[in-house]
Amino acid sequence: MDTLGGSAAAPAVAGPAPDLRAAGEQAPTPADIQLIRASLAIVEPVADRATAHFYALIFLHHPEIRALFPAAMDVQRDRLFRALLMAGRNADDPAGLTEYLTGLGRGHRKYGTLTGHYGPVGECLIAALERFCGSRWDSATELAWRRGYGLISKIMIDAAEGAAKSSPPWWQAEVVEHRRVTSDIAVVTVRPDQSYPYRAGQYTTLETPWWPRVWRHFSFANAPRPDGLLSFHVKAVQAGWVSNALVNRSAPGDVLRLGPPAGEMVVDHASGTDLLCLGGGTGIAPISALVEEVAEYGSAGRSVEVFYGARRRGELYQLESLRRLSERHPWLSLRAVLSEERVATAEALFGDLPEVIGGYGHLAGRAAYLSGPAAMVRRASGALLRAGVANSAIHHDLAAG
Asked: Range of 48's domain?
């Protein structure tokens, strides 16, 4: 539960939970939004303590909710405050806030979140904020947060109830192939137990049987296909429980769980805009899916350029597959970029991917799709903006892993 999500002794939570669905009918005022942001600025420097206190309140006064969370709460605490910051920053953007919270509401179904959980969680959140805002907390700030959380919970509840009419909270998916492509990267292919609708460029959350209630983001590495199989490129990272389990432990026959698809990094096939795709490391997975989908739909007269970045040549595990696609489709061009190994110019460009893109030129007017490490995506976004690519034309989903 990314946003319903900390440890420490705590005082009792005062009063019964209000009717948060009714509270959400009254949107926060501009003054409320300023108070919400001001209180978040106060709490941000002590976010770890505040969120730990928040979770302690929940688990002390509502122990039935504890079973919805993983045993280790370190990542959960970070996700809570990021979600609060996102909601606070977008409080004056109803469309953006609704889009963000709708995805959260649908995704929370996989944790077992019920409508009745939102009220108690809201009371614990307000109690934690009151404690850590200290003398800056007053009745106006509390009212602002009650209105804000009421709106947040209403959007999430409505999204969850709407999704429940057409899709399960999660999908069971059997591993049908596990292929090691480098020492620390595996391509894992699964077969969902029922139809799983998604778009190339999107991602999902995935849970393994070895780490119950620990969900991690992974991008789809293929476009939807008739056999319904889904592939993921997984790199085992240090302290990565799920990624290490998938790379080093999973095998055909194991059953995983998938959350609903998410993400907006999808191609508009009605547009003929030329595409520029940047994939760093396993970030090449959604880029490969996008290219595959364009090939299936037809290029619509557009060109597609793919820049595939890695440190060394041996890490370009997806290069041959993309080359085969480029040989069949003249609209597709492919360039490898290596940051630590110099090779013949015909084989790969040398340098960091964002710097290579920044010096490439003639990029204005294109739609750009970026996937890879967060630092790379941010730097590449900046390079594209300086090269004349419109901000609205730069697409990425930094939440994906």
From this structure: 20-164
